[in-house]
Recover the amino acids of this structure.
């Protein structure tokens, strides 16, 4: 190689007018592929989906004779609407005109705080959701028959709230499992969708921090 | 997008956007997507422009920030790919530019980390160390050292190919 990279660049772009800009098609209505916009639209979708989900859930549960469970699930989902709205508003400060480091840092801070907020919510949601389903199953007719069958197969004298003790223990253990691992389940779910992007973000920030030292 | 805005504030700076997007993409299709995304974000961010810096510096910043956080959906699957999802081996990019040298240089640049790509592009665009540090958000003193290292790496890659 005889030419320096500076010369290669200069000669390559000696006449910038020759650079052809791609055609712009309906840019204004184009769906953004930026991660911030993607997450924002995900939060936006959350709000709409939960609202619709609440109505559907209530109607469906009422139809199968469990209107209280429908109401209970709606009640559990409502905080998610408030959280998603709050997180949506926070993204307003994420200006892409900042320096790359500041932009990535503000994005990372927002992302972490969002994940923390959602994690906190799911820690309560998952166990309560399971508990609601379990209680409904226990008090339903089919559930009653199933419990009777269970007591017949595994008889016991210890009955709590009209249920064999081992069923109470099982429900408690699963509820505790969800309470303990809710955060991990949420993080796992996120990492499936955005794992690579999050890793890339961490690497970028680490690299830029090295440059700042 | 108002076509006036595009004509007045984007098209005259299309060279900057093209040069940056080329360094972060592997195909013409990706390049066009990135270009459009940058234009969209420039338009969306126009009200945040505080006139403390040049408009061209603003365009550099947005172009880089968009390229650094772009998500592209694969045609054949559901998973997102990120802009640094390049194979390990040398990438023979399509001949995007007339000059063979510049195509060769771009292929070498694509072997660099995302941050290094940003730095070398700004350096080649004759930005001062202060300007590069301001756009990237780093320490000016480290920029010179990093540029030297990047140039050595690029020369090595290019020489290996020759």
């Amino acid at each position: 190689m005889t030419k320096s990279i500076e010369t290669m660049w200069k000669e390559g772009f000696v006449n910038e007018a020759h650079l052809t800009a791609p055609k712009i098609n309906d840019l204004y209505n184009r769906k953004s592929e930026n991660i911030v916009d993607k997450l924002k639209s995900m939060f936006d979708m959350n709000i709409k989906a939960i609202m619709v989900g609440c109505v559907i859930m209530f109607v469906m549960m009422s139809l199968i004779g469990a209107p209280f469970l429908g109401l209970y699930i709606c009640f559990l989902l409502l905080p998610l609407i408030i959280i998603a709205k709050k997180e949506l508003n926070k993204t307003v400060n994420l200006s892409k005109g900042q320096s790359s480091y500041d932009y990535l840092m503000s994005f990372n801070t927002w992302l972490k705080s969002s994940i923390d907020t959602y994690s906190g919510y799911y820690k309560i949601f998952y166990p309560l959701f399971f508990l609601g389903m379990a209680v409904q199953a226990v008090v339903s007719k089919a559930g009653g028959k199933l419990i009777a069958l269970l007591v017949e197969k595994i008889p016991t004298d210890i009955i709590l709230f009209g249920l064999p003790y081992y069923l109470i223990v099982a429900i408690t253990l699963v509820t505790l499992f969800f309470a303990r691992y809710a955060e991990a389940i949420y993080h796992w779910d996120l990492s499936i969708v955005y794992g690579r992007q999050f890793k890339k973000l961490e690497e970028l920030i680490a690299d830029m921090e090295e440059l700042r030292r | 997008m108002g076509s006036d805005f595009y004509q007045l504030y984007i098209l005259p700076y299309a060279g900057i956007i093209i040069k940056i997007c080329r360094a972060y993409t592997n195909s013409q299709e990706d390049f066009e997507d990135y270009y459009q995304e940058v234009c969209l974000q420039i338009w969306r961010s126009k009200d945040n422009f505080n006139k403390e810096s040049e408009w061209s510096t603003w365009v550099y910043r947005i172009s880089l920030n968009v390229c650094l956080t772009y998500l592209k959906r694969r045609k054949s699957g559901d998973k997102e790919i990120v802009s640094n999802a390049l194979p390990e081996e040398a990438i023979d990019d399509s001949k995007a530019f007339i000059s063979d040298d510049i195509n060769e240089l771009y292929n070498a640049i694509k072997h660099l980390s995302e941050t290094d790509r940003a730095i070398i592009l700004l350096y080649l665009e004759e930005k001062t160390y202060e300007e590069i540090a301001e756009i990237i958000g780093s320490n000016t003193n480290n920029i010179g050292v990093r540029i030297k290292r990047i140039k050595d790496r690029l020369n090595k890659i290019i020489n290996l190919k020759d």
